[in-house]
Every structure is written in structure tokens, then in C-alpha cells.
Amino acid sequence: MPRRLPSRSSPPNRHSTTPPPPPPPSRSSSPNRRSTTPPPSPASMPQRQTIRRTIFGSIDQPPQSWLEMGLSGHSMEFTFQMSNNQDITLDIQDPMFMAQIITEGMRFGQEAFDNRMNFPAGTELPFYHPEQHEVTNNPIQIPISVNTHDAPPSQQSQIEVDTTTLPSMELQQGIRPKMYLLNSMKSFIVEEEYIRKYILMCPVRLSKCTMDIRVITNPNSKKFGVFLVPTLLPVQIDEDDEEPPKMSLMIWNCRGSEQSDFRTSYRSMLNYHRPTMVLLLETHMTHHQHLADDFSFTDIANVPAIGGCGGMALVWKKDSVVVDGLAMNDEEIHCTIKMQ
Question: How far apart are the first and last CA of the chain?
Fold first, then answer.
């Protein structure tokens, strides 16, 4: 008896491996190929505006220091990205301005490093708010963004808050002298309107030191620059690194040595610190010999004040130091100090 063939309308064999034909694409799901409308463009971003400023140096003013001479023909470029979609580029080609930036940066970095070495481990450096008077009076303003964070609970429990009202920063720096160890190059920029006192402790290994004191003038204010470059003897292996200081140098921007309370303060500082050499700035005097004779110093080098402003006096004891290569003019004292 012949077999009956399956009808076309019957379901396919479940064991068949041939896949069913794909369904025809739906007209509604297919893209419109005949449309001429361009695709939507992304939102256009506003372009940043670049503002460039150049600070040129004065052709009539020659270099006043070796640093300004070395920076002649060079420039510094700073770019500030502002929040109002602007980029400000500052091109500095003034050697005097560049020398001031470098000198201030070296001083700030050295002071921060010296102060950091005296802090206990894990202590954060203090930051002042930009609106405080102590920060707005800085000669060079640099915008700094600081991400503050809370200390761990273990450190918070060890911190004691002192609510005692402190005097202003200028008053503190005028009352308390800053202490430094003369074991590397030191530079100080002293403004004439602030009283500053510095005590430099000289290590035993100090052989000699080059000192340069000069007047730094700019349109805003008058300053004194003091640069010290020490020469140290090599360290022996069996010697202790924490050796006691051999002697000390004192720098004081006294702002008038003719005042009635100057002699009292000067005598008190000499009796307490017993410096071998003292540099007095802004003395406002033309004759300085009594600053050596009346306070047991043997030698003096001085620059008289002009019109009641300025004036420098360097006094020392010749039995402890020898001063060689002394050179002076109306705005500078340069010498080499050799230890006895």
C-alpha cells in the first residue's frame, strides 16, 4: 500500500535542522531611506577666549644684580584658566620682575622647608584665608587652591585647641626673631615698612660666608635684599651632626636707630643672643660710628641715609671674624666673612 505524503500545511519535522525563513522586515521599523533631513548636530560649545599680556623691561635701567643680568634676554610665561571661559597668558620679559619672583620663591621655599623640619610627623601646614590682612600684603600674589580634609579621629583627639588671641602677623614678626642655621644659602627680602629680626646660627664647620646687602627699588615699595652664601668644611665620619653653633649673626630692620627705645632694645638683644656680627637696616641716620663704639664692636661698614630714609650699618668683632673684599656704594654692601 503506497505511503501518504505529508501535506504542505502540516507542521515541519521537529528533527529538521533547516531554520525557518526570517520574517520580512516591518515597514514601520525600517529607517526612512528617502528622508533628506540631516541628523541633529550636537550643541556647539563656546570657544575659550585667550587674552595675552606682555610685561617689558625698561631699556634705560641697567641690571642691578647678577641675577637680573643672567635673566636678560629670557622670559617667563604664566597661563591662568579663568572660570568665565577665558585664558589669560602673562609673558614677563622684565629681568627685574623675574628676579623678584625667583628670589621670593627661593625665600618662601626655604622658610617652608625649615619650618616643616620642626613639625611633628603628620602635622598639616597652616593656610591663611586670602581675605586676611597678612596674606594680602605679600609682595607677590599667587592663586592657590587647597583641598581641605579632616584629620583622622586618632589625630583629632590629640589636638588641643588654643583660644588665646594672638597679635597680628606683623607684630609677631617684629617681636620674635626668626632663627636659622647658616648651613646653606640664605636670602631675605625685607620691606622697609616692617620690623624684622633674624638670628643666623653659624655651625662649627662654617669656614667663610659671602654677604651681599643691596637696596631693591620698584614702583610700589622699597626693599632690602640680603644674600648669604656659606662655605662649609667637609664632615668627618666620627663627628656628631648636631654640633653646637660657633657664633651667630643678627639682621635687624630697625626702622630708625635714632629712636629713644632703640638703644634699650638693641642692648637687650645683644645681651641675649650675643651675636658676633650685626646688620642694621633702615637706620635713618648718616653717622653710625656710635653703633659700634657704644656696644663693644670693633669695626663698622655703613651706608648713610639719604633724606632721612634708608641707611645700613654692618658692625662686627675683629677677634672673631675677618672681613675681606669689602665694597660699598650708595645702595650696596658686599664682603666675605672668614671665621677665626
Answer: 137
Sheet hosting strand 332-339, strand order edge to edge: 186-191, 222-232, 206-217, 332-339, 321-329
Asked if the model's pLDDT at residue 267 lies above 60, the reply is yes
266 is written with which cell numbers?
Answer: 638693641
Over residues 10-27, the pLDDT tens digits come to 455 555 555 566 665 555
Any idea where the domains of the chain sit in the sequence? 49-100, 170-234+244-340
Strands 86-92 and 186-191: unpaired
Count CB neighbours of 339 within 10 A: 19
User: Per-residue pLDDT tens for 80-134?
Assistant: 888 888 888 888 888 888 888 888 777 776 766 665 544 444 444 444 444 444 4
Strands of the sheet containing 86-92, edge to edge, are 49-55, 86-92, 76-81
